[in-house]
Amino acid sequence: MAKLSDVAKKAGVSVTTVSRVINNYGSLSEKTKNAVFTAMHELNYQPNSLARSLQGKQTKLVGVIFPSITNPFYAELIADIEDKLFKNGYKVILCNANENAEKELSYLRMLTANQVDGIIVGTHSNEIKEYQTMDLPVVSFDRTLGTKIPTISSDNFQGAQLATQELVDSGANNIYFIGKTHLGSAKNPTDLREKGFAKTLEQNSLKPHYLDLDNDLSNNIKKMKIRDFLTNTPTVDGIFTSDDFTALLVMEVAQSLKIDVPKNLKVIGFDGTQLIQSFHPELSTIAQPIQDIAELLIGTLDERINQHKEFENAKLVLPNRLIKSNSTQK
Amino acid sequence: MAKLSDVAKKAGVSVTTVSRVINNYGSLSEKTKNAVFTAMHELNYQPNSLARSLQGKQTKLVGVIFPSITNPFYAELIADIEDKLFKNGYKVILCNANENAEKELSYLRMLTANQVDGIIVGTHSNEIKEYQTMDLPVVSFDRTLGTKIPTISSDNFQGAQLATQELVDSGANNIYFIGKTHLGSAKNPTDLREKGFAKTLEQNSLKPHYLDLDNDLSNNIKKMKIRDFLTNTPTVDGIFTSDDFTALLVMEVAQSLKIDVPKNLKVIGFDGTQLIQSFHPELSTIAQPIQDIAELLIGTLDERINQHKEFENAKLVLPNRLIKSNSTQK
DNA sequence: TTGAAAGCGCTAACAT
DNA sequence: ATGTTAGCGCTTTCAA
């Protein structure tokens, strides 16, 4: 691998000069510039970014930590983040935390050891205190990590309101929320979906009902629980699920039980990924603004990295959008 | 950020000694070891991997280049790769090539500039010659990049045979392949699916039929083409698609046309991702051994990186597995 | 068992 | 307009 001094020798100049033309600063004559450029080409020279960063230059590396990459919502968000970061000259170190706090912590150390310029986190383990004490720029998606760390999210409360109101408007009276319920705690921004649900029903003088369904359960067990529920609760006529997957499961089970969706049961999900929308356009859902989220995450991180902007209890919230489709048809 | 010399000062030893305990070599007395460890803890010391790698040490960074991360097949493969690399102490630089040769090339430069220890590629642009001239360990998924670069893939030919035979066995006679067809060229390993299809039908004295469907088309256009095809080709009774997505589209369109699957039309896909299997268990498909592929990719890369093993025209092929389900029921 | 010092490839202050 | 040189934080010979 050719290095700076090789280029310098070949071009008949000093290393400084080569460094200058690479970084394009100071005064250079056209002649030397050209000499250096040709030397660089001939040697197929690539600057070693390790050596560069060692002087305090940015590494242009950003750690991106998410709980899963196979979940289409995260996949689409990560894809957007990667693409936008690339356009800004950054590379992504992908950290798939896998709901594993130990792995996440280990990644955190690796990232600081690698001198990343910043970190984008979207995981949900609350055990990791390190984020607060790190002096690295961090931005978070949908999770409160500390007062200094800005949190970007979509408006889960408003989204849930949209969804619930859609169920009411389509004629449902006996409406259930299906998902992981944390009635009361609301540490997780996502719990706001529950609150928005309850609030909207209250405003419509209806009673909220819940079916707790842990996210960690296997699909088969979820299906079984949903089947159980639907069989024993013939009164239910509207369901708001915590995510599109669960909504799909509900629709599948309903079909197998010959329950007509949307005639006898309205269903609405949450997330609105392109993947699920393209294969199940019949599903009404709340679409999170994935592109905007990615943009805001990166914009905010950029402000922290390049303008050293400080944040204090910043919660940046983007509006959600209702996708009205067949599963909530009147 | 504390550095080696800080630790040395605090522990009352030289930097050499600290370096020795970090890397655990040379002879150290227990006493100094302990002194250094406590100093490290107190300062919350993290070695700077940039400085380390500058001496020629490995960066423990691997570039992972794929055409898409939102496609569940790649998402699941990347997730497996990431997890296994992590267990081996490597970090992943995620490169989403997006079917964009320019971006891919640019990433390639970035990766070499960052001194990655190796690269795993799964993209399909044939324009990039750089792979062959790089002296970096590269392994490829499902794509021939050059004689020195080992190619790992599942057995597309055998998979297609399994799929096609399943259609025949379930009683279909008038069988179509739907997907991007490249009749004859077979540069892409994936084209072997077409060959396996043709071969199997020949063995069963049946004639192969094709519906060319470009992957780049939007879902709506694909659906339209499929609808057209099914409407105008009432004789078709078996369909093998190039991937599960297309199979799902076929089933959706068939349903809307009141064509009974599997009674009047057998359908089988390819890929067998967990995601699609969990939401469409009724789809028969060929499951690629994603975990094994990931393992083999990493194992091979590891041989190249750490044992400097050379490969010449290596094609490592893993068997596929038939998932027999409702869509090909007799 | 420990330390001094050279140097990895680059940048940037300081000279000229 | 160009060059000399001192580091960045670490590893590693070589010497003690």
From TrEMBL, chains A, B:
GO terms for molecular function: DNA-binding transcription factor activity; transcription cis-regulatory region binding. Gene3D superfamilies: 3.40.50.2300, lambda repressor-like DNA-binding domains. Keywords: DNA-binding, Repressor, Transcription, Transcription regulation. Residues 2-56 form the HTH lacI-type domain. It comes from the Bacteria. Pfam families: LacI (PF00356), Peripla_BP_3 (PF13377). SMART domains: HTH_LACI. SUPFAM superfamilies: lambda repressor-like DNA-binding domains, Periplasmic binding protein-like I. This is LacI family transcriptional regulator. It comes from Pediococcus argentinicus.
